[in-house]
Amino acid sequence: MRMMRRGMAGAGLMVLAACGGGSGNPGADGGGLDGSLVMDGGLTEPPVAWLEIHARDLWGQALPESQATLRVTRDGTAVPTSGWPVIGVPLEDAGSYAIALEAPGHWPLEVVATFDGSTDADAVSVTVGASGAGQGISVARGERTIAGENVPAHVVVLGLRHQFFSAQGRPARRGNQLELFTNGQDAWGSVHDDILAATESVHMSTWWWESNFEVVRPLETHVTLTETERRANTILGTLDQTSATKRILVGQFVSQDGAISWLSADDDIRARGDAPDDGFEFLGQANETRGVFSFQVDPFRFSDRLPFFFDVAGLTFDDEPEVESTVPPRTVDLTEWPISIDVPGASYHQKFAIVDDAIAYVGGMNLRRVDWDTDEHLVFEPRRMLFDSTVEERQAVVDHEELPDNGPRKDYMMRIQGPLVRDMQDVFATRWNHLLDVGIENAENASDIVVPDVAAEIAGGIQAQVTATLPEPFWEHAIAESWLNAVGMAEDYVFIEDQYFRVPMLEEVLIERMTEVPGLQLVIITKPVSEFTDPGCEWTHRAYQTLRTRFPTRVFYYQLRSFDIEVTFGIDETEERFTDIDVHSKMLIVDDVFLSVGSANKNNRGIVYEGELNVAVYDATFVRDQRRRLLGLILPPGTDVSDDAWITQLAEAASWNDFVFQEWEDEGGDISLDGDPLPENYTPLGFVHTLQFRSPDECLIEGVGADMT
């Protein structure tokens, strides 16, 4: 199962190129190793040797001088330094220099550089203490021109490991503009507008594609629009309105171009892939992961990353230990079905888009009939009808006579501008160009993608990271590492809103951290699972039982429900219409500082072998604002979301709604109002309800293995 690596988890040059500076050339961050760039403090006489220290992160990026602190001391006395991110220290007499580098959100690092007083190439030795475990420490030898003469140079490059972001993943880049969409109406409306403005290219990846998926559904006119008018608002109709080159990548099931590859895409999009030279290309991709294999995230050498951020010409690097992942290895068994079978059960589940190499989207929404709703999550929403519905059928929903074809849906999508867009494009190009290399169906009608240079940072922008799960032959697991890191750092709360919560790998870290931190609370918003048909029922119920048993006062499970009434005739004419909201979200927030959202569900498959894509954000202001915002959408209208007591606010809202739900249950779901307003005790507020599961042995279908749910 272990094949050639092309992901950032190793040191593959293709993905490491994604670490380049703004111009795509070494030295773009001003920290080149050219002696002319090194601050020599205006020395008039050359020293015996030169110590050159680089203040960087574990990807080789320069740390911002406004945030990081580097201290150099000799025999306990501070040594004056100048320059950033390259700091020069003249060496004269033998002695030891203690170097300490720290920055917010990173693990601090201390090393000792000992100089023997000579001009030998190995005159400086570097000693690393406990703080160096898992950090980036590269030592190189060369020469520098100081005060007009060449002197031996000893270069120490320090790379701080981030406490939350994935070290194995693509760089956590600064200066990004992020906008989080909380519903399909706003998200797809924005995608629609950006596609229409495209001039060069539109690249889209989805797990499932329906050409007649309506990305725009105007409130005032949608019910009465003709089929022709609505077709212009579909994803295919939108793409047809731009002259930009379109490349569409859709997941397939079981095997590449196999017997059921047609399930996830329709005839209209496949026809585009069949037609050559029309500026509209389509490829399908299967994830053929199967069997039993050893899962381990590959280590990397810090020095292998450095050439992508500055010039290392003329330097010889010492041997150095590889940097290991924090993700524990495990044996993955994908044959644990009720009856022993060995078939591929994975997919490429990524949902993202890139427009003109300048704007990117990533989230959990497919281009599929169910992936559209508003923040109101109305029970009677005519715009959630199928494309082929008639005006009369839509009007019946408006009149509260019929329920729509699709129920309310909860999901997120992030719009991105800035340096991260290049990494999104790299993920798409990695998959796309690989398919061209192996020659899959329609590859002859598709063209290579050239990944652009990294865009300039946006002033005042946010630091974030494109994180992926990619199976062989790419082998990338940044989502897993970022999640485990974040939960392992949690002090106050972990908030999860997800389609599933059955992720033993994350649960292990949660249990460990909640045991270490007695005040840590866990809030999970998910949805009920079927005891009759869901093979993941056992692991869902097991997670609930384990967490609630161990931490009965610190773990909270909720589900979301919409509510409306339908007025009929006769006795008890007012009937309740409680409708479960399909929570399709993939959201993780920790302590108002870290947020991860995208396509990866909270299950082991999503962080081990499924093709997934998320964006991770480390920014206290942005994350706090999003937490307030998304809670405000589900709590009772008008709630001033607290920063200290929001968990209590959720509990109180759920308690009231549970009471109202039971009131309706006690009445058999209908009451008599005779035209009077709905009484308070029959009126839920917001969407939050308590969610409970039963014990694992009450699941009526035999479960599959822990890594397959």
Describe what you observe in this structure.
Among the domains are: 174 residues, no CATH class; 33 residues, no CATH class; 191 residues, no CATH class. 20% of the residues lie in helices and 27% in strands. The protein is built from 13 helices and 36 strands. It has a 17-stranded mixed β-sheet that branches. Strands 4-1-9-8-15 form a 5-stranded mixed β-sheet, with no helix packed on it. A hairpin with a 2-residue loop joins strand 2 and strand 3. Helix 8 packs parallel to helix 9. The N terminus is likely disordered.
How is this fold's topology laid out?
Layout: H1 13-16, E1 49-57, E2 69-74, E3 77-78, E4 86-91, E5 95-102, E6 109-115, E7 124-128, E8 136-146, E9 149-160, E10 173-181, H2 184-196, E11 201-206, H3 227-231, H4 235-239, E12 245-252, H5 267-274, E13 280-286, E14 292-295, E15 316-317, E16 330-333, E17 352-355, E18 359-363, H6 391-398, E19 409-410, E20 413-417, H7 420-438, E21 462-470, E22 476-477, H8 478-489, E23 493-498, E24 501-502, H9 504-516, E25 521-525, H10 537-550, E26 555-562, E27 565-567, E28 574-576, E29 579-580, E30 582-583, E31 586-590, E32 594-598, E33 602-603, H11 604-608, E34 612-618, H12 620-632, H13 646-666, E35 670-671, E36 688-690
Parallel strand pairs: 1-9, 11-12, 12-13, 19-30, 23-25, 24-33, 25-26
Antiparallel strand pairs: 1-4, 2-3, 2-5, 5-6, 6-7, 8-9, 8-15, 10-20, 10-21, 11-17, 14-16, 17-18, 18-20, 21-22, 21-34, 23-31, 26-29, 26-36, 27-28, 28-35, 31-32, 32-34
Helix pairs in contact: 8-9
